[in-house]
Design brief:
119 residues, alpha+beta, four-stranded mixed β-sheet, elongated
Length: 119
């Protein structure tokens, strides 16, 4: 376990078609202060990252930045096709359940809406 240090570290690795880059900057400090910058789709892992850093370093001010580049996608494609298919299926089922036909939607508002209590 390192007690404290001032420094900089950078690492890059290919994993499952993604390029993962990790950058850590540290400054000597009496307490432990960690600032994490993660991609949005990995935000739920922030506490795990913090725990790993705290288990390794006892104190200091640390900036941890993790970024990913997906090298396995088709040109510019960012749609999660499996998720889109699931949503489409669920919406199609809901459409049938509600009796919605193309171009004909059930009334959302009453035929004669009242505004501010007046007709």
């Amino acid at each position: 376990m390192l007690l404290s240090m001032t420094g900089f570290g950078y690492g890059k690795r290919e994993y499952n078609g993604k390029t993962i880059q990790v950058e850590i900057k540290s400054l000597n400090a009496r307490t432990t202060e960690i600032r994490c910058k993660l991609p949005n789709n990995y935000r739920d892992k922030e506490m795990d990252v913090r725990k790993q850093v705290v288990d390794f370093l006892q104190r200091g001010k640390l900036d941890v930045t993790i970024s990913t580049d997906d090298t396995n996608t088709e040109e510019g494609s960012i749609i999660n096709k499996a998720l889109f298919r699931r949503y489409f299926k669920e919406l199609s089922e809901l459409k049938a359940e509600l009796g919605i036909h193309e171009g004909r939607y059930p009334a959302v508002h009453p035929a004669h809406p009242q505004r501010n209590g007046h007709q």
